[in-house]
Amino acid sequence: MAEFDVIFAGGGLSTGLIALKLKKAKPQLRMAIVEQGPRLGGNHTWSFHGSDVGTEDLRDLQPMVRSSWPAQDVRFPDLRRTLRTSYSTIVSDDFHEHISERFGEGVLLNQKVSDVSSSGVTLAGGEVLSAPCVIDGRGPRREISNRLALAWQKFFGLEVELQEPHGLKRPTIMDATVAQTDGYRFFYCLPFTETSLLIEDTYYSTSMQLDQANAAEHVFAYARERGWKIARIEREEIGCLPIVLAGKSDAFDAGPEDAVPCGLRAGLFHAGTGYSLPDAVRAANAIAGIDRLTTDAARETIAKLRTQVWEQGKFYRLLNRLLFIAAQGEEKREIMQRFYRFPEPLIERFYAGRSTALDKFKVLSGKPPIPLGNAALAVPAQSAWQFVSDGATARGR
Hints:
The chain is of the alpha/beta class. It has eleven helices and 19 strands. Helix 1 (13-25) runs parallel beside helix 5 and helix 6 (295-326) runs antiparallel to helix 10.
């Protein structure tokens, strides 16, 4: 039996950031990161606004950042705007290299796990790793779908090298001038160099299904429309993030014999976007601040953080119901276009999950882009359960 001070089941974003913070705060700890795949972080791109994290956290993240920009653009039929909020991106290859360099033999790759408990991890081959603190970041439990009414942000992207410069000076985080199909649709572009960029076809949809071949053709078509000639494809990425319409926070509860959940498994993600990096940073800081690190102490700390995130998420879940249930067709895009007319600090606080009471009042007041009758029907949380149920029935026909 191998013994450690902390064991991480899963080598994703949240476990990686917690491990790095602990390494910085308590370098004497013996830690192991157990990942079933060949690399940490899988095949992902994590982006964040400069206002999402504190100054010290930004310094800690910097060694993994592929690119940073001082501003970002949005495009809508009746709105072109540059937001003077910085934007940064971490690509999983850089995430893997940085953590592997810091932890060396403590990173255990290609290791399937048969059991995770509050006291250890059992590998598929029978080897047992034990520790007084075990953290589980293997993604959401399947059963959470029974406790949450969910929609999805799904996307397919290609990182490409172009024959000529693309001309983008900063990311286009939302180009919604494209045809609106399968919910609210937009393209997302990150210019890494003058001739390389990530292009993603993105949908806020009630369905998790995404035809990759069709989405790839959409990316090629978008590139052609922008006058970009693709020389080669560097990698492709597909993802599906949960968007919570309603539910119970106990969907993420962990029992006394369970390891400490983190990331999506703990419900630590933005209810309106599905993004998890800001909450992953907060979780890492909270756990690194525990004096005597045990599974029980860390579980209690994460539970408190999740309660805060869930309470703040009440506003975002309401907005999700307005977008998915009340808005029809082009109204979904009109909602988003209206949102991006608000002052930059309000938009920054929204993405950071820290909207104030005044922010909420401003977003919900004024002339709405959707009929008041539809909006009133979407406000009760129970409407989300009926909406999801009706959608599942319709897709099953």
